[in-house]
Amino acid sequence: MELVAEKKENENNNESSNATGTQAGLDSSASVSAAGSDSNSYTLTLNAKDADEFRERLARDLKAGLHPLKHKFVFWYTRRTPGVRSQSSYEDNIKKIVEFSTVEGFWVSYCHLTRPSSLPSPTDLHLFKEGIRPLWEDSANCNGGKWIIRFKKVVSGRFWEDLVLALMGDQLDYGDNICGAVLSIRFNEDIVSVWNRNASDHQAVMALRDAIKRHLKLPHGYVMEYKPHDASLRDNSSYRNTWLRG
């Protein structure tokens, strides 16, 4: 899978023109279009503060010869205590590993992470957009839910990597509705989940399901389950009592 990035052909000239064009296109309620050389481009809507931060990050990355991602991401890690399920203990155990906003930053971070097959059970590896914590109660998550896929441990690493690359390249439909993804290492299986912002938007929920199936090339027989986060809060469980299968 290809990540969103500017090609490096005529890099010096393109960096200068792209940075200038992007800066000129920002205003107090900016709809920002950041385009690289040739036809690669992406568009997002930002408020004034976010627009300024985005402009500064883009200009800095282009000047350094780096390839900006559409979103800044954070890897988090949770080492669960078996038998302990309280929300406070869960929050205390969430640790930020690294954040990145460029293709190069992603690969430097990802290549130094422990492979899923070597992670102890039970643990969770979270990949979320900057500003969103991997908690049901987070303001970006509280009205949303997650698609859940259960994998045999021997294949989970490959499917997780394919999903991560799809997120980096903004390749899933309704990408702005996606908050992040989680790899949960368990004793007998590994579980991958993709979190979205709005559980009541049936069209977006089902489109996300179809995009996940398509990009992961899920074999027939794999069942995807959906569960809203408010249901998880009520029964204090991420993966039990799912509401929707598809």
From TrEMBL:
<keyword id="KW-0810">Translation regulation</keyword>
<dbReference type="GO" id="GO:0006417">
    <property type="term" value="P:regulation of translation"/>
</dbReference>
<dbReference type="GO" id="GO:0000340">
    <property type="term" value="F:RNA 7-methylguanosine cap binding"/>
</dbReference>
<feature type="compositionally biased region" description="Basic and acidic residues">
    <location>
        <begin position="1"/>
        <end position="11"/>
    </location>
</feature>
<dbReference type="InterPro" id="IPR023398">
    <property type="entry name" value="TIF_eIF4e-like"/>
</dbReference>
<feature type="compositionally biased region" description="Low complexity">
    <location>
        <begin position="13"/>
        <end position="39"/>
    </location>
</feature>
<keyword id="KW-0694">RNA-binding</keyword>
<feature type="region of interest" description="Disordered">
    <location>
        <begin position="1"/>
        <end position="39"/>
    </location>
</feature>
<dbReference type="GO" id="GO:0003743">
    <property type="term" value="F:translation initiation factor activity"/>
</dbReference>
<dbReference type="InterPro" id="IPR019770">
    <property type="entry name" value="TIF_eIF_4E_CS"/>
</dbReference>
<dbReference type="InterPro" id="IPR001040">
    <property type="entry name" value="TIF_eIF_4E"/>
</dbReference>
<dbReference type="Pfam" id="PF01652">
    <property type="entry name" value="IF4E"/>
</dbReference>
<comment type="similarity">
    <text>Belongs to the eukaryotic initiation factor 4E family.</text>
</comment>
<keyword id="KW-0963">Cytoplasm</keyword>
<dbReference type="GO" id="GO:0016281">
    <property type="term" value="C:eukaryotic translation initiation factor 4F complex"/>
</dbReference>
<dbReference type="GO" id="GO:0051607">
    <property type="term" value="P:defense response to virus"/>
</dbReference>
<keyword id="KW-0396">Initiation factor</keyword>
<protein>
    <recommendedName>
        <fullName>mRNA cap-binding protein</fullName>
    </recommendedName>
</protein>
<keyword id="KW-0648">Protein biosynthesis</keyword>
